[in-house]
Amino acid sequence: MSNDSGSSDAERTRAHVYVSGTVQGVYYRANTRDTAREKGIDGWVRNLSDGRVEAVFEGPEETVAAMVEWCHTGSPAADVDDVDVEYEDPEGEDGFRVRR
């Protein structure tokens, strides 16, 4: 483990995202997980009881921004109405998973 107090090439950031629309039952979470892993992003994704999907992405700012942009389309069967995003300080997520 390196603890170099943030002297990495790219600043890490954390995006907390809420996606609304037809985003449950359309493989949105699985596609989000696969895309995040391809991009090397840490975090998680889960369904909310109100029909939205909630996700957290941690990684280099540019990559996280690209992941947030991806959320506007999501899985091929999804119909995204809105993506709410708040940027926060990273909390050290490791790996990407689907939460229940």
Helices and strands, with pairings:
Elements: E1 12-22, H1 28-39, E2 42-47, E3 53-60, H2 61-71, E4 79-88, E5 96-98
Parallel strand pairs: 2-5
Antiparallel strand pairs: 1-3, 1-4, 2-3
Explain what the structure shows:
There is one protein chain. By secondary structure, the chain is of the alpha+beta class. It has a single domain, classed as Alpha-Beta Plaits, CATH 3.30.70.100. 23% of the residues lie in helices and 38% in strands. A 5-stranded mixed sheet has the order 4-1-3-2-5. A hairpin with a 5-residue loop joins β2 and β3.
Question: Notable features of this structure?
Answer:
alpha+beta; Alpha-Beta Plaits; five-stranded mixed sheet; 2 helices
Task: Please provide a brief summary of the model.
The chain is an alpha+beta fold and 100 residues long.
Query: Spatial order of the strands in the main sheet?
Result: 4-1-3-2-5
Q: Which class of secondary structure composition applies to the elements?
A: alpha+beta
Query: Which series of helices and strands comes N to C?
Result: EHEEHEE
Q: Nearest-angstrom radius of gyration?
A: 13 Å
Helix content: 10-25%
Q: State the CATH architecture.
A: 2-Layer Sandwich
**Whole-number count of domains:** 1
